[in-house]
Each structure stands twice: as structure tokens, then as C-alpha cells.
Amino acid sequence: MSSTSQEPINLYGKEFKRNPYELYRQLRDEGPVHRVRFPSGVCAWLVTGYDAADKTLTDERLGKNHERGNAEWRRLASIMPEPQHSQLQAHLLHQDPPKHSQMRRLVANAFTPRRMESLRPRFQGMADALVDAMPDNGVVDVVAAFAARFPFQVLAEVIGLPADLAAAFRREWGKVVQPVGPTDPGRPAYESLLTGLQGYIAKVVRHKRATGGDDLLARLVAAQISGALTTAELDSMVFQLLVAGQEPVTNQITTALLALLQNPDQLELLKTRPDIITHAVEELLRYDSAFELTTWRFFSEDSDLHGTRVPAGDSVIVSLSAANRDGSAFPDTDDLVLDRSPNHHLAFGQGIHFCPGAALARIELQIAVGTLVNRLAGLRLAVPFDDIEWIPAALARGTNHLPVTFTMRLSRR
């Protein structure tokens, strides 16, 4: 069993975020588990290869409740200050069975594949309306004009967020999951965002408590009234829906478009073969996943992880992006192959924490990518690829701005 004394590898920086795959390849070649460091100074055990990642995601010895973390991890990784850390972090991603199972049942019915498919025409109308509002041609920031708006419009429809409250949501609230340490100059602005978001969640809960209904938000409020959820669990689940239900899809739209624009042969294939959109989205998820890394996991006692001794309470994190580029699992792994099949990627995780909104995300991406590719003729980047600024978030991939140019905005099909 290997030693725990290896020097951590820095898993951050502009160059790394621009292209993390070369480092991931090197790490996979050396072994499945590596000690890494994040910008806050917190260290973790990173799992890279596909087989190791798959087994780690389903390893019942690993739990996600933050109480499992050791004192050093809690000191550095609990970036969100009190009271928000206690009040907004009791959601599904930080729960273990049986509490996790109970909370997941409360949201599962809202995201079933059958329900999501029934809403596809409604979602398509939203996407088309956003493209209709774009100029006839020229340069547009596809994040501001589409990618940051479409997923939230869809989310509001699915969870039952009223139009007036949806209009009052500030997209920057979704950035509170990006670490801003206690000594960072941006800390006061970060704490202000947290306070604003917490106030917004309180308004949503008050509205649903007063109006009731059969939508997901109303059912969560009813669960809190009945005692099935604590107040912190309710607020945390609303927080998770609002942030995890939008930002990853926004980011995945940007990574998907960048992948296509960097691979014009595949972009042309998708234009001429719109019937492959389902396979194409799966490949775009594999090729550059918006969820680069999972959230933290912990052993309750010193344990062996694929030949490496990991102390109890140390954080374990899985690189979904590294697993999805493992050549032992995917032939021609660094090539974008839109009609790749089979495609058993891990972009939505695995095991009990498999993304409950995966069916919704897939339909959103099929509509978003298909609509933008087919309605914006002559689509290409408006800036050099190297000028794209990737978000600095430790766990996520995407860009806040994506300037594209096109020659003609085509009418709806």
C-alpha cells in the first residue's frame, strides 16, 4: 500500500483550467489515486481512472456527510461561513443513507424521464424564443443571451417557481459554490451574495407555505411542515435545486459549444444528421463534463483506496473528467465522436448519488445544442480559443462568457 506522504499536486490555475486533460492523463498513467491541493489549501485524494472512479462512486465505505471530515479538512474546506453553512448545506449531496434515501424520494418524481419528455415541447418553445430575441446576425455572447437563461426558465417550470419570483433570481447567486476564502479580497461580496440568496430562498418558502400546490417546491414545504424535513434541510434542498439545477447545465452548454466549434467536422455532422442529437449529447458530456470533479467523500476509518492508504476523515474526490477520458474505457478517447456507441460515461456520477436531474439535463442539452447549431448559420467563435476565460471553480468546468458570431439567424423549424 502506498504512503500518504506524497507531495500534493496543485489542481488549479488558469492553464490547468484551460486544459486539465494532459495532467489527468499523466496522473492516470502513474496510478489511480493522487494527493492534490485546491486554491483554499484543502487537500484531497483524487481518483482518476475509469474503473477506479466507477468503484469509488459505489463504495459503501465512503460517506458524504461533512461531519465525517477531519478537523483540518473542516478548517479549510468549510468555505461557506455560518450561519449559511449550517442552514444551506444540509442537502442531498451531503447526506448518507437513510437520510439521503428519504430526501431523494421527495424529489425523484419531479424529474422522471416520462415527465421530462412530456415537457419537451414547452422547453423547445423557450429555447426558440431566446434565439428569436438574438440579432439576425453578428456577434453575441451565447452565455448572456441563452446559456444562462434557458436552464433557469426550464427549472422554474419543472419545480413550480412562480414567474415573479423567477424574474427576481440573480444568476450570480449561483456562484456561491465557488470557493472564496476568509482572507480573499472578494470575501465581503461573497458573503453579501450568500445573504441575498438566503433571503430569496426564504421568500420562496413563504410563498409556497401560503399558496400550497402540487409542484415540487410546494411538496418540499409540506414535508417540512409535517416534520419529514428540518428547516435547514428544506432551505438546503431549495438551495440545491436553484444552484445545481441551473449552473451545471449553463456550463455544459458552453463546454459543448466549444467542443463543437473546435471540431468543425463533428459540428457539420450534427448539422447534417440532427437525428444523432441523443448520441451527440452523451459524447459532449463525456468529452468535457461540466462536473469536472465530484464533491467530497470520507472514510470513517483508515482505509485502502485502490492501493493507497487514506486516513479517516481525509477527503476523497473523483475526477469525472479524467475517468471519461480514460483510453481503457473509450477508444480514441481524446477525439470527439458524436455518434460514439456505447458511451458509458460518468458525467452524472454513479451509485446512490447519481444525479437525480439527469433526465432533465439530457433533454435540456439536446434542445439547447440542437437549437443553437441548427438556427445560427455559420456559427463560429468570435475570439481565439485561447482567449476564452474558464471559471475558476474547483469542481466545475465552463465559461462565463462565450462570444460567437454567425451569418444568419434561421427561422424556427
Summary?
The protein has 413 residues and is an alpha+beta fold. The chain is 47% helix and 10% strand. α8 packs parallel to α19, α15 packs across α17 and α17 crosses α19.
Commentary on this structure:
The protein is an alpha+beta fold and 413 residues long. It has a single domain (9-409), classed as Cytochrome P450 (Cytochrome p450), CATH 1.10.630.10. It contains 19 helices and 13 strands. It has helices at 14-18, 21-30, 50-57, 71-77, 84-88, 99-108, 113-118, 120-132, 142-147, 150-159, 163-168, 187-211, 216-226, 231-244, 247-262, 264-272, 277-287, 320-324, 358-375, and strands at residues 9-10, 33-37, 43-47, 62-63, 138-141, 297-299, 303-305, 308-310, 315-318, 376-377, 380-381, 403-406, 408-409. Strands 1-2-3-9-6-4 form a six-stranded mixed beta sheet. Strands 5-12-11 form a three-stranded antiparallel beta sheet. A hairpin with a 5-residue loop joins strand 2 (33-37) and strand 3 (43-47). Helix 8 packs parallel to helix 19, helix 13 packs antiparallel against helix 14 (231-244) and helix 17 (277-287) packs across helix 19. InterPro entries: Cyt_P450, Cyt_P450_B, Cyt_P450_CS, Cyt_P450_sf.
Secondary structure topology:
Elements lengths: L8 E2 L3 H5 L2 H10 L2 E5 L5 E5 L2 H8 L4 E2 L7 H7 L6 H5 L10 H10 L4 H6 L1 H13 L5 E4 H6 L2 H10 L3 H6 L18 H25 L4 H11 L4 H14 L2 H16 L1 H9 L4 H11 L9 E3 L3 E3 L2 E3 L4 E4 L1 H5 L33 H18 E2 L2 E2 L21 E4 L1 E2 L4
Parallel strand pairs: 1-2, 3-9
Antiparallel strand pairs: 2-3, 4-6, 5-12, 6-9, 7-8, 10-13, 11-12
Helix pairs in contact: 8-19, 12-13, 13-14, 15-17, 15-19, 17-19
